[in-house]
Amino acid sequence: MPAVTGNTIDSSGWNQHPQGARIVEVTSQLDGPVNTLKKRLTTLIDAQMPELASLIAHDQAVSVSYSDRYLKSPWSQMLLSGFWELLRSDQLQSLAVQTLAPSGSQPSYLLSHDWICVDDQAAILELWLKSQFDIAPSITVMHSPRDLLHCRAITVNWASGKISKILLDQGMGYWRGRTPYRDQMNFDFNAQHHDQAMQMIEKYSYAQMQQSGEWPTYISCVVT
């Protein structure tokens, strides 16, 4: 039979991550005080997401947006600002949030409970983010799940023109809140909007975040 010729195939890169894309498994790495979440995120990203770490170190975030159907409680909003703290920069100009309106009717009295009124949810989210970043955010509240993607995604536009998409498997819902004393988890949902925002500022100074189960969650990042 005639000889068959062939070429060598380079398989050295078959098991490597595509450049700019990472998936990280998270369990207890981010547990701790909410107001120091940035430090733990920085450690995690430096070790496992080098492309994103390089952008944070050498670039500037210009705009940041977050889409999450379940951003309906004071606790989830506090966690969001903890994540966004990582992206603070001198060139940051715009913040945007897309979420769903609350649908429950049970009385709320804990920090992790949802608002009942959509006007409260949107107004306090705007007050909270403005108090943390000194930027008036754009808040969009949808009323039907069909109008919003199910995935929880932080989109970052960088001064260099690059775009990062950070996908959070379970969003802010993966971490439950803890406080030094049980009654510190109480939250007055009947207070005026400004007073509710002030409650969040106070609790932000001592609240702790903790994984809500033994199973992991995943954070993935794509840089384009």
Question: What this model shows, in words?
Answer:
The protein is of the alpha+beta class and 224 residues long. The chain has 5 helices and 10 strands; from the N terminus they run E-E-H-H-E-H-E-H-E-E-E-E-H-E-E. The strands form 2 sheets. It has a 7-stranded mixed β-sheet with strand order 1-10-7-6-3-4-5, covered by helices on one side. Strands 2-9-8 form a 3-stranded antiparallel β-sheet, with no helix packed on it. Helix 4 links the parallel strand 4 and strand 5 (138-142). Helix 1 (37-48) crosses helix 2 (50-58), helix 3 (74-84) runs parallel beside helix 4 (118-133) and helix 4 (118-133) packs across helix 5. The model has no long low-confidence stretch (mean pLDDT 93).
Radius of gyration: 20 Å
What's the total helix number?
A: 5
What CATH architecture label applies? 2-Layer Sandwich
Could you tell me the strand content as a percent range? 15-25%
Listing every helix as H and every strand as E from the N terminus to the C terminus, the arrangement reads EEHHEHEHEEEEHEE
Task: Give the gist of this structure.
Helices cover 27% and strands 25% of the residues. The chain has five helices and ten strands, in the order ββααβαβαββββαββ.
